[in-house]
Amino acid sequence: MSTPTTAEQENLRSRMPNPLRFVPELAEVAQGLHQAIQNGPIPPATISLMQLRAGQILGSTYFAIRETAILRGLGESEERITAVATWQDATCFTDAERIALELIEAVLTPNPSGERVPDELYARASAHYDHQALWSLVMVIAHIGFFTPAALIAKPIPGRAPGQNYTD
Questions:
Q1: Which distant-in-sequence residues (6+ apart) come within 8 Å of 41 by Cβ?
Q2: CA–CA separation, 22 vs 10, rounded Å?
């Protein structure tokens, strides 16, 4: 597959226009989620690693490109960014990051043999994160869940800033 030219990138279109014209309350809800995550104890790199993994699981180019750019901006290595797809056997993640990645994967992946987040996974997460941090991880997952329908249905334009990523 070839890389899109600049002209092709400029011609990318979202399926739907900017939602704020139709649901202005969305800005306040989104800001509340962003603030809850930013005010929590989870490091920004862990948040973006989780959100990148979510984008990979969901098949969202928008999320994958956005979080990759954020991770690069945070100074993360290409090794760590690339290894998110295979985090289970990658050696470049801390135990706490691994649990965070396992949680997002468990929540987003159906488990036909039982609960998505079994007691054993919760116990391992509790060993690395206190109650405040666990709730912050829940908010990170809620954030991705909140924006998933827009990413998959409206298809915002990858690589563009929020507010400029819809065709109006």
A1: 132, 133, 136
A2: 25
Residue identified by tokens 């996974």 is: 121
Enter the pTM of the model. 0.89
Helix/strand/coil for 54: helix
Q: How far is residue 155's CA from residue 20's CA, in Å, rounded to a whole number?
A: 15
Residues 6+ apart with CB under 8 A from 47: 37, 140
Which tens digit of pLDDT belongs to each residue from 77-126?
999 999 999 999 999 999 999 999 999 999 999 988 889 999 999 999 99
pLDDT tens for each residue of 3-12: 555 555 567 8
Side-chain half-sphere exposure of 58, counting CA atoms within 13 A: 27
Distance, CA of 121 to CA of 106 (rounded, Å): 9
Residues 6+ apart with CB under 8 A from 98: 87
Contact 81, 71 (CB under 8 A): yes
Tokens 């929020």 — which residue? 162
